[in-house]
Amino acid sequence: MSQFVAAACQMDSKDTKEDNLNRALSFVDEASEIGADLVTFPEMVTYIGDKDRYPEIAEPLDGPTVNKFAEKARENDLYVHTGSFFEQIPDSDRVYNTSVVIDSDGNVLNSYRKSHLFDIELDGNVEYQESACVAPGDKAVTVETEFATLGLSICYDLRFPQLYQTMAHRGANVMLVPAAFTMFTGKDHWESLLRARAIENQAYIIAPGQIGDKPSSVPTYGRTLIVDPWGNVISKAKDREEMITATIDMDYLNAVRRDLQSLRHARPNVYELPE
Question: CB neighbours of 85 closer than 8 A, spacing ≥ 6?
Fold first, then answer.
């Protein structure tokens, strides 16, 4: 398949899990109606609210959220990227922040747990500590599909180019970045970082975001984007809950990689990062 249609859903999720999930499932139907082959969702698609409730909200990978998305994928004959939801960790007060990719037959192809957690300390005071309630994943994940190789990431991962380079060198050519970027950082960094990851890795970037004021949390930026391998923004959401689409052209991607061969010139023996 040299071209396919991707949909990215910008959502205003709150703290009522059932309402959020039902809205997401309705977007799958909408994506099918416009002929999308893949529909994607933002970070924390089913719940944004009091962090003390994360263990209560969390569920296993084969729980109702994934099962309902799988049923919709099968009904509508399209691929679904669930965005992220909270996954239970047995015998732990923490949860994983997890994404799942489901094929058009309703089969789970793979899952990814957010690797980089947003902890910030200023002047000796903890300002925000995601790691207090969320445990990090420990591996990069790519997913082979009939139309592309997907690279999976979540929100704060976007600031760590090494993750995307790892996925690109494993063959990823479409990177998914579900997010709940804050208004404060999003207005200055969101688009710049997404375009940089697209250019560096000569990959399409599909970045569905949360928008709006949130219970027990800060306002989110939105501006869901789809970016092409040259770094051009080819679809962008307005400041509201909505679905955007774009045609992903793999022949164009292959031409970009053929004509500017930077992926071939990586020199991992030169690069060094401290543990």
Answer: 44, 45, 46, 47, 58, 59, 65, 97, 98
The residue range of the domain holding 24 is 3-263
**Distance between CA 134 and CA 118 in Å, rounded?**
10
CA distance 20 to 18: 5
Q: How many CB atoms lie within 10 A of CB 161?
A: 15
Sheet holding 149-152, edge to edge: 142-144, 149-152, 174-176, 204-207, 225-227, 233-236
* CATH number for 79: 3.60.110.10
Residue 271 inside a domain? The answer is no
**Residue labelled with tokens 């990959």:** 203
Q: Tell me which DSSP letter residue 188 carries.
A: I
Taking the CB of residue 18, how many other CB atoms lie within 10 A of it? 9
What does the alpha-carbon distance between residue 197 and residue 232 come to, in Å, rounded to a whole number?
12
| pLDDT one-digit tens code per residue, 77-104 | 999 999 999 999 999 999 999 999 999 9
Measured CA to CA, the distance from residue 234 to residue 246 in angstroms comes to 7
Q: Name the residues annotated as catalytic.
A: 43, 114, 155
Give per-residue pLDDT as tens, 143-189.
999 999 999 999 999 999 999 999 999 999 999 999 999 999 999 99
| End-to-end Cα spacing for the chain | 41
